[in-house]
Structure formats: structure tokens, C-alpha cells
Amino acid sequence: MINNRSLQIRTLVILVITLVGLYLVFGPRRTPNAHDFTWNGIKANLEENINLGLDLKGGSHLLMRVLTDDYLKTLTENNAQAALTAAQDAKLSVAGSNVVAEQGSYSISIQTSDASQTAAIVEEVKKRVDLFNWTESVSGNTVTWTLPSATQTILKNQAVDQAMRIIETRVDAFGVQEPTLQRHGAESSAQILLQMPGIDDPKRLKDLLNAESNLTLAKIVSPPSPSPVQTYPTREAAIQSLGGAVPPNRQVLKYTDRDMAAEPTEGVEPPAQWVVIEYPPVVDGSELRDAQAVSRTGNEGDYQISFSFKPSGAQKFGDWTGRNINNYMAVVLNEEVKSAAFIKSQIFDQGEISGRFTKSTAEDLALTLRSGALPAKIEYIEERTVGASLGADSIRAGVTASLAGLIFIAIFMLVYYRASGLNAVIALLLNMLLTGAALVMMNATLTLPGIAGFILGIGMAVDSNVLIFERMREELKAGRSVADAVETGFDRAFITIVDTNVTTMISAVILYLFGSGNIRGFAVTLILALLINLFTAVYVSRTIYMWIMARNPNIKSLSI
Questions:
Q1: Last residue of a domain, one of 347, 373, 399
Q2: HEC profile for 435-503?
Q3: Is 365 within a domain?
Q4: What is the rounded average pLDDT for all residues in the chain?
Q5: Residue 391 scores a pLDDT above 70
Q6: CA-CA distance, 330 to 321, in Å (whole number)?
Q7: 276 and 254 within one domain
């Protein structure tokens, strides 16, 4: 006997879920317009609601490698110079230093002419340089810091992770929906895969990724105010002022005083000058908290970049500016002095890069400063572009395959199972709708392998109905009533359906865990289709039979 209350609840559940699915897939979920519910509007909503992958939408594919060995080399050289400067500033008797920076071997050594000062050197270096994870050793009059292999691996992975975060920040500027950014290959390969659907200009993408944003602040070697900044007309003249060679604690950099130059001419840079600055710098871009393009006058060519420091950088900057009042500070961007600021008083957390930037160049520079400098250079291993027309062909082929499979399955079910086959077709259509709705809810990206998983899900959904129908046929042949045959068919086929779906889902989960990129898209789509199949093939199909028997309680035969 059919419980009408239970049947009404089941029907309401199916109706609500179906309406929600229709809205998620075809409704104006993101950017409503006046024609959302026309045919063209519904089609546009469908294209916008489902994120398409690179192989369907077209775009750029870049496989890159972070040069982590170069990162460790630069880290070692910078730490070596900072350690040497710390010992020299403490007036300790330093006789020399040595740096080993090659693949797999990184060490820093400082020699002293007085072996009794080795402990003092270690103490001063600890105060000024972060060598916490380095192995320290003392032998005679030499102090050595060595980077262990385990720490090298950790630092390399950190460099790749940092590069990924910076790349992600820069990629967000494109406004691309669901870009793919992930580690690729073995962990030791330091490879990163980037796929940008809808971006068919890989050169522009590479230009943004390669944009440098190395900001440092350092003291300019110049007489104190009121004298102007000491500049030199050529690099050679600046080097001559240092005795003909650049010592380790100095740098000679190009300096173009854009503010003091005459009104700039289109395509003509102001004359270059050269300055000498102290090395290493007091703070760098890693200490930045924020950077914004600002205009004091509102004129297009009069923009500056205002930046602020994190607390740790603000404290270091404040201490340093307090010791250097009436001196000049260089604002160095990508190895070029952009501004020479006069230090009037102690400054803690804010600064500014001036120089008649345009609005667009100032905003681009602020973006790269906010995202930070890449920890190491990247090289491109593979680059390819998928055209939008090729993506459209893939969509057309996928849709054609899906429709062909659906039509042939529907014909077979209607011919072989007659009216019961219509039940299976309804459940199948609902399965397809809800799978698409689940992709939209998860904000997942549909790829060509994802369409393959979608099609395979159609076959699995029909397989469940076949199991149920064949079991019902056996019960009817055994002389059971229609009501008993339906109930027994569903009950006894349910365990088999669960078994087949679960075993297939286990395979799909393994594909997702150990696969990458498009393989995961196939696995996700298949898993969703199988989960939803438990609802459509069992719950929905059984509800349809319950309606049939409620309308005809004395039914004697079933079209199956």
C-alpha cells in the first residue's frame, strides 16, 4: 500500500532539487541581464555559469622551473656579505672571507688574524644575520657556516611555494576565472604549471610573470646635507671615486633624477647619472606591507608610489633613519636608483617613490611591489597556446558525443524496456542536470576529459536502471505481484548498485589523488555523476513507480 504522505514528500524533494539544478545551470547566477530567460540569454548563462578549461575555452599553457640553485647561491652570497659587514662594523680583526656557492655545496667562512676573536665574530654575526638553520663550526682562526642538505631542500621548496604565491597574485590581475596553478612533476624538479583559459597572448603573460619588483632602501655615499647628492656622469667615474674597484660593501648604480629633470619628452629619457650606495641595504621588498599608486596633483604624468612596511621592517627602518639624519637614502628598484630622499628625521613605516610616473606605469609598479619579488628567476620549459576556435571544436565534439550517447541509450531503453525505459530516460536526464549543477556549485572547471567523465557517468547511470529492471523482470516471472516485484527489485538491486558505484569511485579517487590537471577533471566529473546516480536511479525511479501504483492500486501488469 502506497503511503500518500510519503509520496508527496518524495515528490516535493525531487521537484525542489530539480528547480535548484535548473537555476544553477541555466539561471542568471553571475551577471544578470535583461534577456536572461530568452533562449539566447539561457545559452549565455549556461556558458558563463560553467567554467571551461584551457582545452575548451582556449588560452595559454606555461610550464616553468624555478632556478632554486641560483636562489641558494644568491642567499649565500648576501649572507656572506652581511656577515662580513657585521664583523667589520664591530671593529674585529677580519683577515678575509670565503664563499662557496655551487650546486649542493653552500658555505660562508670568515678568517680573523686573532683566533681569540672567533667567539666575538660569531656573536656579532648572530645579531645581524639570520643563519639560524646553518651549521656553525670553528677551526683555528676561521669561522664557517654551512648549509645542510636537509635545509637546502626545505629552502628550495619554500622558494617554489613563494614563487607560486607571487605568480598567483600577478595572475589574479588578469581576472581569469579558474586559472590552473600547481606544482608539476617530482618535488625536486621545482616545476610549476600555469594554464590561463581565455588568455591567448603568452608573451604578455610572461612579461607580467617576469616583471621584477626588487625594492631596497640604502644609504647613498655622499656628503651630508646641505650638499647635494654626490653623482657621477659615468659608471667608470663612480668606480674611480672608490679607488678603481668596487668593494664588497658598496654598489654603483644608475640614477636618473626624474623629478629634477626637464619636462620629459615622449620616448626620451632624462640624462643618466651614477651614485655609490652602501651594501647590503637596510630593508628590502620582503618587508613591504602595501604599495599604492597616488597622485598629488591629479595630472596623468605626476604619479608616485606610496609604500608602507611590516612591523619588523618598520623597526629596522626607524632605527636606521634615526642614525642617518641629514644623509641621503636611495630608493632602489630593480638595481636602479629611482629616488634620492633626504632624511630630515626618523621615519618608521612609510615611504614614497617619486618620478613622474603615468597612472598605468605607477599602478603596474605598485602591483609588482605588492606581489613581491620572485625569490629566484624562472625558466620556461614548455609553452603553447590553444586557440579559441580549437576550444570551440572540442566543445562541439564533446556535446555531439554526449547527445549521441544519450539518444542511442534512450532508444535502446525505450525499445528493450518499453514504458519502463521512459522512467530510466527521465532519471538519466536528471542525472545530467544535477551533475552540471554540482560542477557549478563547486566552481569547478570543465575540461575535455571532464566531458569524457560526464559521458561515462551516463553509461553508469543507465547500468543501475538495467540492474533494477532485470531484477523486477525476474520477480514478475516468478509470479509476484507488480507491487512486490517493484519493491523487491529495488531493494535487492540496491546493494549491487552501491557496490558497482563505490568500486568505480575508488578508482576515480585514486586518479584524483595521483593525477594532475585534466586527469583530475575526469575524476571529479565521474565521482559527481556516480554520487548523483544513487539519487536518480534509485530514489527518483522508485518514486515514479510509486506514482504509477498510487494511480492504479490494482495494476496487474507492468510495461517492462
A1: 373
A2: HHHHHHHCCCEECHHHHHHHHHHHHHHHHHHHHHHHHHHHHHHCCCCHHHHHHHHHHHHHHHHHHHHHH
A3: yes
A4: 82
A5: no
A6: 12
A7: yes
